[in-house]
Amino acid sequence: MGSDFPVDQYGREVTDHFTVLATTQLRLKPGVVELLDVLDQLKLPRCIATSSSHSTVQSHLSAHGLAGRFDAVIAHGDYAASKPSPDPFLTAAKRLSVEPALCLALKDSFNGVRSASAAGMMIFMVPDLLSPTPEIHSLCTGVVSDLHAVRKLILTASAAGTIE
To answer: How many whole angstroms separate alpha carbon 149 and alpha carbon 38?
Structure first.
């Protein structure tokens, strides 16, 4: 954009705009509350693994009454290398005391899918802005339209006795 482009000012304005959007238009993915209720019912641990800061995550969770619904939050600064490195997901599994291969990662981004795959986790992609490419699709256990579908899959697996 040229040497005279005001990078610092632009960065501040983008951050300010994101903050306004996040506080006024932040929406939950359909099915998140119902999925968390099922995880509670089945006593299954859950963790957020994100590149966002702890303060951003807590702000978003609090805005929707979800603070305290997760056993752990792994955020920027809690791991050595960011996505697509497996570090965020390996740290999450370790924090939950669960082997990565027994973890289900729910992701909407390509780098999140790559990261969880590199960690050896099962992945369901819940696409948001981008539909999965053939490469991303090949890394996923499945691709679902929303978290209601994940909830149904977990209930089915629980009824079949395949979830401990």
So the answer is: 12
Report helix, strand or coil for 60. Answer: helix
Cα separation values, 100 from 26, 71, 80, 120, Å: 30, 16, 17, 6
Nearest in space to 50 (alpha carbons), one of 92, 13, 98: 92
Q: Are 89 and 51 in contact (CB under 8 A)?
A: no
DSSP assignment of 61-113? HHHTT-TTSSSEEE-TTSSSS-TTSSHHHHHHHHHHT--GGG-EEEESSHHHH
Task: Give the model's pLDDT for residue 21.
Answer: 62
More confident residue, 29 or 37: 37
What local confidence, expressed as pLDDT, does residue 75 receive? 97
User: Is the pLDDT reported for residue 48 higher than 90?
Assistant: yes
Residue labelled with tokens 């005391």: 97
Distance between CA 107 and CA 114 in Å, rounded? 10
> Residue 85 corresponds to which tokens in the numbers above?
């490195």
Nearest by Cα to 64 from 23, 109, 97, 11: 23
Rounded distance between C-alpha atoms, residue 126 and residue 108, angstroms = 5
